[in-house]
Write a structure and sequence with these properties.
ten-stranded mixed beta sheet; alpha+beta; 436 residues; 15 helices
Length: 436
């Protein structure tokens, strides 16, 4: 979209309410819930709080990067299982790490333009269920095997089978790598650490802060948007399981580099975790708010998407936020809460540094001066991806919901929720608390 064109020039778009599951850290095997299970759980709790039936929605939009083979168009599966009915259309969107944010953007555009009045939107991901795939050589061999009809043909085909054919392709690793620049997401984070001279100790300190802030949020009862999950064995999940209350810089310092061995700085401890989770929100027009007498958390004012060099993909938020603030005549100090997804500790730190760097802002953003400083006390105040986890299809919806929850409890006015996106993009959404 043009830099000076707001995303939603039509009707106001309200966020009525939202709910998310606890985020469950992957433990080396498929977790207890599928992506559709988790979205269904969050959606069921959310709909139970609404004064209307599930079939009142005009549409359902869900972000998901890697739905299971039995979850094709996962939004439709979720919609039907929630009782939205056959007549409610549902569709799935995918923009890598920002798929949940994309779902909200699509829903907001439809509400603003008058296509819809009431939308269930969000994101879900079960990263622990990412598939193992056959190699192409194995697929070709299987094709020959199924074509063989006689005993002789089958014996000849069997003789061509090689042990190497059975080595699986790990779908998750493929998804976390960029085929254009041939770098993993972690290697792109190493690029930012080098470019902005961010030390290993600074990354680890940031990671510890993320865990401590999340621990405090749970202890203070500030994570009210989370609804518990119950697995088939009766186990209850009430908190994000990646939280490490005993995290310390000394402990993290013992970890080896994960992506640039042996000299890198990015480790498993200062990176977002591989996680399963879902977040769902109800978006409404003013007409729907009045019709059903709905309370509202706030408004979605604007949204912006940007592209960057895939090798520097973590800087996506820098490029998405700058036009967003400019066209709304806002400065950095006008934002009272910042949710920058913690794909990597160094990635968030690099974004904060770039906004303050006059040369970067002039050469990369075309600005006359630095954009400004982010107040660290307003940034990811209850932790982020390093401690919470980053189920890629879900996170964009989570950070929007939590931004509005933070504004609700502080009484302040504006927030920005933003993410970097694998492949070299950034997305940012401008939010405003409204009086119910």
């Amino acid at each position: 979209m043009p830099a000076n064109q707001p995303a939603y020039p039509g009707r106001a778009v309200y966020v009525v309410d939202g709910c998310r599951t606890p985020y469950l850290k992957a433990e080396g095997q498929p977790g207890p819930f599928s992506a559709s299970d988790m979205a269904q759980s969050a959606g069921r709790t959310l709909i139970s709080r609404m004064p209307f039936a599930a079939d009142a929605f005009d549409e359902v939009v869900v972000g998901c990067v890697m739905p299971g083979p039995n979850e094709v168009n996962i939004a439709r599966i979720i919609s039907l299982r929630l009782g939205c009915g056959d007549a409610v259309p549902a569709w799935t969107v995918q923009r890598n790490c920002a798929s949940g944010l994309q779902a909200l953007d699509c829903a907001a555009q439809h509400i603003s333009s008058g296509v819809s009045d009431l939308v269930l939107a969000g994101g879900t991901e079960a990263m622990s269920h990412a598939p193992l795939l056959f190699r192409e050589s194995m697929v070709r061999w299987l094709g020959s095997w199924y074509k063989a009809r006689t005993f002789g043909q089958r014996m000849r085909t069997l003789s061509q089978l090689r042990p190497a054919y059975f080595a699986p392709i790990i779908g998750l690793l493929k998804g976390l790598s960029d085929p254009i620049v041939c770098l993993s997401m972690g290697q792109t984070a190493e690029n930012l650490a080098f470019r902005f001279d961010i030390s290993r100790e600074q990354m680890d300190e940031y990671a510890v802060r993320s865990h401590m802030r999340l621990a405090n949020a749970f202890d203070q009862g500030l994570m009210q948007e989370i609804d518990a999950l119950y697995d088939s064995k009766g186990k209850v999940y009430e908190e994000d399981t990646g939280l490490r209350r005993d995290s310390s810089v000394d402990r993290l310092a013992r970890l080896r580099p994960a992506f640039d061995k042996p000299y890198g700085k990015v480790t498993a401890g200062n990176s977002a975790q591989i996680t399963d989770g879902a977040a769902m929100l109800v978006l409404a027009s003013e007409q729907a708010v009045e019709k059903y007498q709905l309370p509202v958390l706030g408004r979605i004012l604007d949204c912006n998407w940007a592209g960057v060099d895939p090798a520097q993909m973590g800087l996506g938020p820098v490029h998405a936020v700058a036009p967003l603030l400019q066209r709304n005549d806002l400065g950095m100090d006008d934002i009272h809460n910042w949710e920058i997804n913690e794909a990597f500790a160094t990635q968030v730190m690099a974004c904060v540094a770039a906004w303050q760097d006059e040369d970067y802002c002039h050469n990369e953003l075309g600005l006359d001066a630095a954009l400004g400083k982010v107040d660290e006390e307003r940034l990811n105040v209850d932790g982020g991806g390093v401690s919470i986890g980053h189920p890629v299809g879900s996170t964009g919806a989570r950070i929007v919901l939590h931004s509005l929850k933070v504004l609700q409890r502080t009484g302040e006015k504006r927030a920005v929720a933003t993410l970097c996106i694998g492949g070299g993009q950034g997305g940012a959404m401008l939010l405003e608390r409204t009086e119910s």
